[in-house]
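ok, trying the design again with the full structure, not the truncated one.
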């Protein structure tokens, strides 16, 4: 979390609003949940995941071929999510959410 600032330079003098500062208060975008920050208007959790990130360590999933499994580890990638899942007969598998035929059970 934090904030980001848009600095328009010296445009204030051109617009004659009386503010000569380098940055105006209404251009500061605070990235907290109270101000609509975070993915999808929600703050990231302690692991840095936010938005519609739906998989968590300990969740149970159903895989089309491997059957039921339990998530051991979740790793957020740039545009995807990698899961380490233990399945009864298949053992531990590393799955990409965008590719694997899975659905969350619990």
């Amino acid at each position: 979390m934090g904030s980001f600032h848009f600095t328009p330079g010296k445009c204030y003098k051109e617009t004659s609003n009386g503010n000569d500062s380098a940055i105006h208060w209404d251009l500061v975008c605070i990235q907290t949940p109270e101000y609509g920050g975070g993915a999808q208007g929600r703050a990231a959790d302690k692991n840095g995941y936010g938005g519609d990130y739906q998989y968590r360590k300990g969740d149970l999933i159903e895989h089309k071929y491997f059957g039921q499994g339990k998530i051991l580890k979740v790793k957020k990638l740039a545009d995807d999510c990698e899961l380490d899942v233990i399945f009864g007969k298949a053992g531990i598998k590393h799955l990409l959410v965008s590719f694997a035929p899975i659905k969350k059970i619990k």
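Keeping the full-length input from now on. The chain has one helix and seven strands.
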